[in-house]
Amino acid sequence: MIMRTGLFVGTFDPFTIGHDSIVRRALPLFDRLVVGVGVNGRKHCMFPLNERLDSIRRLYEGEKRIDVKHYDDLTVDFARRENAAFIVKGVRSMKDFEFEREQADINRQLTGIDTILLFAEPGLESVSSTVVRELIGFGKDAAAFLPKNVKLRI
What we know:
The protein has helices at 17-26, 49-59, 75-81, 94-111, 129-137, and strands spanning 5-10, 32-38, 66-71, 86-91, 114-119.
């Protein structure tokens, strides 16, 4: 039996309720879903990689179909290593859509791997890691934008 694997990627700095929504909605489409935490040397993250990985793993502990891993190369190369047939991306706006459409086209040209775009649930369109980091940076409580089991050391 062939296992259908999907790959949901981002820096997840931090992992928000919007990300969690995408994972929970994508999971029924696959036998296995890999949450890939990207490491980009050009992007400074507020939260260390290990903290991001640990918080996502704790959130999905007990769900055997979800793997949480990190990678530091092209998403399509990571997808190949994980035998992922699809890359899953969340879309909050037309700006996101255009960016993800272009990335999906390039990824498909490079490898033949298709991208599935899942639109943000109503009420989550404004939730982003950037907003959460900004709130935290100004000393505000951002807990409403984080999954209940995600605790960050600030």
